[in-house]
Design brief:
Immunoglobulin-like; 2 helices; four-stranded antiparallel beta sheet; mainly beta; 35% strand
Length: 305
């Protein structure tokens, strides 16, 4: 009986010594977190880009189309970076840039996409070349009447055979051509009356663009009997108008007062520039202020070449 006890006791002593030895060994175990599972939806990085700023073609807007991500790191290929989800970035100029996006999910898993982004200055659209209807006045008053004229006449001028000797292309014909005529009775400003006549024509042209207004005028004589001198006036009105009463007081983008009194048939050519407004809606407005007779001819409107 004694020997059995000793044997049993020896077993426990050996087991105890083994346990101590086991504990004292330098073992390490990486145990998984409780209830952990594999990342079933890792992030997928992606984006698109577009030049959307009409004022500065160098600014590119980025649309982040990544999925399963919560943070983002952009590199624009210039040394500049961003952590915004959908940044806009101003590149130094035209060129091809290598842009990368790294998207990271809540588990710290990342995905990176790299694309080449082309930054190019868009071509300027061709400026609108308007057609001046009856710009040579060969069809009488056609094309120059305003829709209505409260308190005044819609007739724009007196038709005349004493127009410029040049045709609409600028060639000297050696003879008179049709033109528009103003008399003392149809004059404006200090002679304004129910018989005053204004020539009006509306146009839609390119916005914020330099245009040329070209025309010819003649004044029969200047007897110094008109305050400010006998004159022909052409204005570019800011906008379109349906009633002459409104057009009289409309703001102008350009105004020329022709004072050269060289006699009937001796026309002065005017060719000057103006800048269109932001809407592109403009109108030509012509009238005379004269004690005798004054004329206009060959009205042209075109973008600066």
């Amino acid at each position: 009986m004694k020997s059995n006890i000793l044997k049993t006791g020896g077993f426990f002593v050996a087991l105890f010594m083994f346990s101590i030895a086991f504990v004292s060994c330098d073992f390490e175990f990486d145990l998984p977190e409780a209830n952990s599972i594999a990342d079933a939806t890792p992030p997928s990085a992606n984006f698109s880009s577009s030049q959307t700023d009409p004022e500065d073609f160098r600014i590119v807007s980025f649309s982040n189309t990544s999925v399963s991500a919560i943070s983002y790191a952009w590199s624009f290929g210039t040394g500049d970076t961003s952590t915004e989800a959908n940044p806009s970035y101003q590149f130094p100029g035209e060129g091809t840039y290598t842009v990368s996006l790294t998207s990271t999910d809540g588990n710290g898993v990342t995905d990176t996409v790299t694309k080449e982004v082309l930054v190019v200055k868009p071509e300027e659209p061709d400026s609108i070349v308007p057609t001046v209807n009856n710009g040579d006045f060969s069809a009488g008053q056609d094309g120059w009447k305003i829709d209505a004229f409260t308190g005044g006449k819609r007739d724009p001028f007196n038709s005349s055979s004493d127009g410029s000797p040049r045709d609409y292309d600028g060639n000297d014909t050696g003879a008179k051509t049709p033109g528009a005529k103003w008399t003392n009775g149809t004059s404006a400003e200090q002679f304004l009356s129910g018989n005053t006549r204004f020539a009006y024509q509306a146009f839609t042209i390119s916005a914020d663009t330099t245009y040329v207004i070209e025309w010819e005028y003649a004044i029969k004589n200047d007897k110094e009997d008109v305050d400010g001198g006998d004159r022909m006036v052409l204005s570019i009105l800011d906008g379109h108008y349906s009633d002459g009463a409104d057009a009289i007081n409309a703001p102008t983008l350009y105004k020329h007062v022709g004072l050269e009194a060289l006699g009937k048939g001796n026309f002065t050519i005017v060719k000057e520039e103006f800048t269109s407004n932001s809407s592109g809606l403009v109108s030509i407005w012509i009238y005379g202020v004269t004690s005798e007779d004054a004329y206009a001819d060959n009205i042209k409107l075109y973008p600066k070449g």
